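**User:** Once you have settled down, spend some time on the protein underneath, comparing sequence with structure tokens, and judge whether sequence predicts the tokens.
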Amino acid sequence: MLLVVAIISLLISMLLPALKFSRSASQQTVCQSNQRLLLEGYQSYSRDNGRKLMGSNTRDTWDWLRSSSNTAASITDGVLWPYTRAMNTYVCPNQVYPSYLNSYSINGMLNGEQVNDGITSKRHWTSNIRDSVQMVFIEEDDGRGWNFNSFMLGGAQGSYVDWVAANHFGGDNLGFLDGHVEYWEWKTPHLRKRPKPNPPAPSDPGSVDWDRLKPVFRSWPTNN
């Protein structure tokens, strides 16, 4: 009898990691599907509004989310809502903070508050944006009770303003303007941790992750 119990215990100990991995992989897939749906709405809004980009902050009438608070109205009052109309689309199933109603942020260079290398954020979907390499959505870790405003990257090499979330195997899903979603695994140890301290995020000179994010953060060369 004891031998049978020991064998069962061994089998369970062997199966649990595989089950955990399978669950995490499924959560990553759901998150990618969410971002594709959000991207479809993002693109449709722009086409319906003369190529204008919705605001990437969370405070004004033209922003994708309407209020800087963790409420359903913050989502349903945003300009993206008419194109999605599903609350669960905004939530990664493995987000850092289970109570958050939104897991994602929009790039601050897309009609947001960001200035990068002296180049201001885009207000319209212009032809010089490289759609396939232009990041729109990213999973963010903002410990202030809500993902406030847009996702911002610091101007100096290795400097961050906001934290990435590391929701999936030490990485995150990123949604791009052409509609595709990619999984990026972060290499820097403090980016892989969950949860992280409140913003602003610290500088990380020489960061390979920052170097990788920079070209997808802004894909156009000039202020036009």
